[in-house]
Amino acid sequence: GENVEQHPSTLSVQEGDSAVIKCTYSDSASNYFPWYKQELGKRPQLIIDIRSNVGEKKDQRIAVTLNKTAKHFSLHITETQPEDSAVYFCAANNAGGSYIPTFGRGTSLIVHP
Amino acid sequence: DGGITQSPKYLFRKEGQNVTLSCEQNLNHDAMYWYRQDPGQGLRLIYYSQIVNDFQKGDIAEGYSVSREKKESFPLTVTSAQKNPTAFYLCASSRVGVSQPQHFGDGTRLSIL
């Protein structure tokens, strides 16, 4: 089955810096890669996603890049703000199977004012 | 207001007791999922269902049971066979198919008395 590795597990940055979270996946059949943000005590929410026919997608201060050959994808957050502090999860969906996502273990992002 | 409702928010279990966590959605989604969240472990899939009256085991199904008698409802029972039930439980739903993000409930925190 699919295996998703996410790094780092904790990321601490100063307000205004950029943050990058990386994920690798094992199954080349995976073709949909969502990112979720979970604030403390709240539900995970989709913040951005990318499909395998696209190499990069941007939405204001966040972007996701995908390298299908290397089987890795990354979340980039620019001009970080304290409200970006949360746990971020990546996931990979396998279209060849049951469409069930496999999640990474999460990255706790701390943005210091 | 469309969404997923989980109840209760907090639940306590005594030794030898079965407890049931409720999950209801009004998004007209065919697929529903149960995840267990432990610190540093990410989201681990317990059970999922893609159609009424059918469900499949996830990665950590032992000690849990589910039913899917209605499209809107997917209750999870934590049985006495689950020896380490203390965790945060998240329910999610989605459309079935490629590139479908998940929508999560607010979660239920289960503790042992």
Task: Outline the structure in words.
The complex is a heterodimer of chains A (113) and B (113). Chain A has 113 residues and is mainly beta. Helix content of chain A is 0%, strand content 58%. Chain A is built from no helices and 11 strands. In chain A, strands 2, 4, 5, 9, 10 and 11 form a 6-stranded mixed beta sheet that branches. A 5-stranded antiparallel beta sheet of chain A has the order 1-3-8-7-6, with no helix packed on it. With 113 residues, chain B is an all-beta fold. In chain B, the strands form 2 sheets. In chain B, strands 2, 4, 5, 6, 9, 10 and 11 form a 7-stranded mixed beta sheet that branches. Chain B has a 4-stranded antiparallel beta sheet with strand order 1-3-8-7, with no helix packed on it. The model of chain B has no long low-confidence stretch (mean pLDDT 93). Classes of the chains: A mainly beta (113), B mainly beta (113). Chains A and B meet through strand 4 and strand 5 of A and strand 5 and strand 10 of B.
